[in-house]
Amino acid sequence: DVKVTQSSRYLVKRTGEKVFLECVQDMDHENMFWYRQDPGLGLRLIYFSYDVKMKEKGDIPEGYSVSREKKERFSLILESASTNQTSMYLCASDSRTGGRDTQYFGPGTRLTVL
Amino acid sequence: QKEVEQDPGPLSVPEGAIVSLNCTYSNSAFQYFMWYRQYSRKGPELLMYTYSSGNKEDGRFTAQVDKSSKYISLFIRDSQPSDSATYLCAMRDTGGFKTIFGAGTRLFVKA
């Protein structure tokens, strides 16, 4: 069974703090993704990575950065948290080999920035 | 115009009803179509996966894809209170990395 885990379920931070969200997958997937989910807006792609040390901007990368030093781990960094980054953050992974290339999601991190 | 349109609901039905959830899309290059179910405060989980057009059935769930109309549907038969969740449609083209998600439809099944 595919398992995607995220470091925290709930996080409260203050404006201006640097925030790290970590994601680990155990299925040797080459692709990993970070989304944020807001009511009425659905899932919006922040960044994705198709290989170690490779990253691509998604639709809303501003204010975020990512790091992928190992295949199984993909980190999202909020350099200076702001209140408009309060959201649910979802990590996902997938593989384009083996036929079935759908995304598997972690449980999410609900981040509140005060 | 969004690439994928999905009515956010909420949709409220009595237990045992047949539920129909729908999405429309604009990109004719989409070939892979998925439905995810998301319970409150949880991550989405894959429910159905379809490649190209046609129907796919899995227990009480049926997914339909009509590429000529750019329209996909998810039917839930004999709906149960445990089906109460948000349902997200998703789609992607061949070779693309990005999956495009609908905003999700919130479903309530009343006992």
Sequence-ordered SSE layout with sheet pairings:
The complex is a heterodimer of chains A (about 110) and B (about 110).
Chain A: E1 4-6, E2 10-13, E3 19-25, E4 31-38, E5 42-49, E6 56-57, E7 64-70, E8 73-78, E9 87-94, E10 104-105, E11 109-113
Parallel strand pairs in A: 2-11
Antiparallel strand pairs in A: 1-3, 3-8, 4-5, 4-9, 5-6, 7-8, 9-10, 9-11
Chain B: E1 4-6, E2 11-14, E3 19-25, E4 30-38, E5 45-51, E6 54-58, E7 61-66, E8 71-76, E9 85-93, E10 100-101, E11 105-110
Parallel strand pairs in B: 2-11
Antiparallel strand pairs in B: 1-3, 3-8, 4-5, 4-9, 6-7, 7-8, 9-10, 9-11
Account of the protein in words:
The complex is a heterodimer of chains A (114) and B (111). Chain A has 114 residues and is an all-beta fold. Chain A is built from no helices and eleven strands. Helix content of chain A is 0%, strand content 53%. In chain A, the strands form two sheets. In chain A, strands 2, 4, 5, 6, 9, 10 and 11 form a seven-stranded mixed β-sheet that branches. In chain A, strands 1-3-8-7 form a four-stranded antiparallel β-sheet, with no helix packed on it. With 111 residues, chain B is mainly beta. Chain B has strands at 4-6, 11-14, 19-25, 30-38, 45-51, 54-58, 61-66, 71-76, 85-93, 100-101, 105-110. In chain B, the strands form two sheets. In chain B, strands 2, 4, 5, 9, 10 and 11 form a six-stranded mixed β-sheet that branches. In chain B, strands 1-3-8-7-6 form a five-stranded antiparallel β-sheet, with no helix packed on it. At the A-B interface, β5 and β10 of A face β4 and β5 of B.
The total strand number of chain B stands at: 11
Query: Any idea what the radius of gyration of chain A is?
Result: 13 Å
Order of SSEs of chain A, N→C? EEEEEEEEEEE
Tally the helices of chain A.
0
Oligomeric state of shown chains: heterodimer
For the biggest sheet of chain A, the summary is: 7 strands, mixed
Structural class label of chain B: mainly beta
Number of strands of chain A: 11
The residue-averaged pLDDT of chain B reads 93
Name the poorly predicted regions of chain B: none
How would you spell out the order of helices and strands of chain B? EEEEEEEEEEE
Write down the Rg of chain B: 13 Å
User: Which overall shape of chain B is indicated by the principal axes computed on the Cα atoms?
Assistant: globular
Binned, the helix content of chain B reads under 10%
Total of helices of chain B: 0
Strand content of chain B: over 45%
